[in-house]
Amino acid sequence: MADTKSRNRQRLDLLGLLPFLAYVAVFLGVPTVSVVLGAFQDDAGGWTLSNISAAAGDPYLHAFVVSTEISALTAVIGAVVGLAIAFAVSASPPGGVLRQVVSTASGVLAYFAGVPLAFAFIAAIGSQGLVTKWLGALGLDISGFSLFGFAGITLVYLYFQIPLMVLVIFPALEGLRPQWQEAASNLGASRWQYWRLVGGPLLLPPFLGALMLLFANAFAAYATAAALTNGIIPLVPIQIAAVMSGNVAVGQENLGNALGLGMILIVGIALAGYALMQRRTSRWLR
Amino acid sequence: MTAVVDLTAAPRAATRRRLGKGRIAAWLVLIIAALYFLIPIAASVEFSLRGVHDTHDLSTWTNLFGQPGFVDNLVTSLELAAGTVVITLVLMVPTTAWVHLRLPRLRRLIESICVLPLVIPAVVLANGVLAAFRNGPSWITGTPVILALEYVVLALPFTYRTLDAGLSSIPLTTLVEAGRNLGASWLTVLMRVVVPNLRTSILNASILSAAMVLGEFTIANLLLMNTLPVWTVQAGQQDGEVATAASMLILLVTWVLLLLMSVFGQRGARRTGRSG
């Protein structure tokens, strides 16, 4: 009697989740399923692998390569520079102004992607930009540097990658207790030995995790590159947008879905790696 | 830079002296980073103030509101932000509170569902929305309403985490049981007990989603909707100064919102710190 009652109550409790689950199913689930199924369908709705093979051939394969290169490069540079900044800040007194400024600035700047970021860089080092003019007055001509190419995109993406790294790695860096270093030096370890045997191994998982988060972050980004280059650079998201706006041969309307599926897989794997590393870190972090 | 040496912390001061070279390197890193992050912003300001023949004036800013389409799109973006915040709160405050109260075992699962949008890039989501809702009611799919509905999904990872953290920091069960025992209905308990106790989290979740909506370009652009960021990029093809001013405006509003959140967050933390 009591048992059925509590089971009924449990069922009623689950009912309370219905609005949320229904909302997510409709506005996230349905579009996602549509992309995944569409990747394996032709225009008439029949099953096919032709979208996948088209997405895995040129010019789209090239887009995956360029996207991967830019994401990996900005992840590595962003992670190293972000770690350096976090180190520099963690050496400052706790509760100081520097910490306050860097943590607030990182929180705000990690959000600074997309349209405003693109225009800010055009205003700085575009052909009419402030820095371009300054350097021009000094006799240095940087008009050969294209903001719209590989190096330009890398420079711009770092603007949101570095703050994200600071946000993600700072808690781990702060979690390294000074007692551990003291214990190591009391036992006669040098600073180098401490970092090689204690600090480094502890920081490695969160660092690798952050690398993967940054990679996913850059791989998924569309707005910045689109606003900056007007869709010239061959990144996967740009190609999907081109397919969506009809710049594609007849019979390839579902190609965008196949490219989308590829993006979901790559971003998903990277984020799963991040989650895994984060779980390892949470074992010793607090 | 003045080095603040805390004499009471003798061992610390000793390590710091030993790190003389390291400290110089640290400041070098920070100064270079500061230049990298400040120059584009300063350049944006300068660019938006450019007048004719190498002069500077406020003409771009004063003309901004007169630009065709600017005010309409600004209003659309503000309405989208408000709509997204309302839907988010109506959906997520009761849901997260319910999970904490009745289904604590499902917290991990709900959290996993809420971070799923991070795995689906905005471009892919837009692609799916376009195909899946092609035959949907046109007052939803043909208007910015669909944008607000999807922005709620995009903001889920942040809004859930914020509300979840807020709920974890209050004695929710005790509060709700007290209210229920005194004869209050679920709705009354939600509105007059849970919501007031979650003020800071609700404010933060609202600010995060509003800031995200105001700058969102990808989905709006691909679904062919006109919002302020979309207008800005289109304007940029004719007039760089106008586009820069508009994007500075987006940035300014977003940053003020996020700074407000940071200030409120610190005040909240200080208060709980004192009482605890």
Automatic annotation (TrEMBL), chain A:
TM region(s), chain numbering = 12-40, 60-89, 101-125, 145-173, 194-215, 221-243, 255-277
Per its UniProt record, what InterPro entries does this chain match?
MetI-like, MetI-like_sf
Kindly list the biological process annotations in GO that this record carries: transmembrane transport
Q: What is the lineage of its organism?
A: Bacteria, Bacillati, Actinomycetota, Actinomycetes, Pseudonocardiales
Chief location: membrane
Question: Boundaries of each ABC transmembrane type-1 domain copy?
Answer: 64-276
- The molecule here is called Putative spermidine/putrescine transport system permease protein
Task: Please give the superkingdom of this protein's source.
Answer: Bacteria
The UniProt keyword set, sorted, is: Cell membrane, Membrane, Transmembrane, Transmembrane helix, Transport
Family to which this protein belongs: Belongs to the binding-protein-dependent transport system permease family. CysTW subfamily.
Q: How does it sit in the membrane?
A: Multi-pass membrane protein
Q: Where in the cell is it found?
A: Cell membrane
Cellular component terms, GO, for this chain's entry? plasma membrane
TrEMBL record, chain B:
- Give residue ranges for domain ABC transmembrane type-1: 74-261
One Pfam family recorded for the sequence = BPD_transp_1
Which UniProt key words apply to this protein?
A: Cell inner membrane, Cell membrane, Membrane, Transmembrane, Transmembrane helix, Transport
Give the GO terms filed under biological process for this record: transmembrane transport
* Family that this chain belongs to: Belongs to the binding-protein-dependent transport system permease family.
- Membrane topology reported for the UniProt record: Multi-pass membrane protein
The record, for InterPro entries, names: MetI-like (IPR000515), MetI-like_sf (IPR035906)
Record's protein name: Putative spermidine/putrescine transport system permease protein
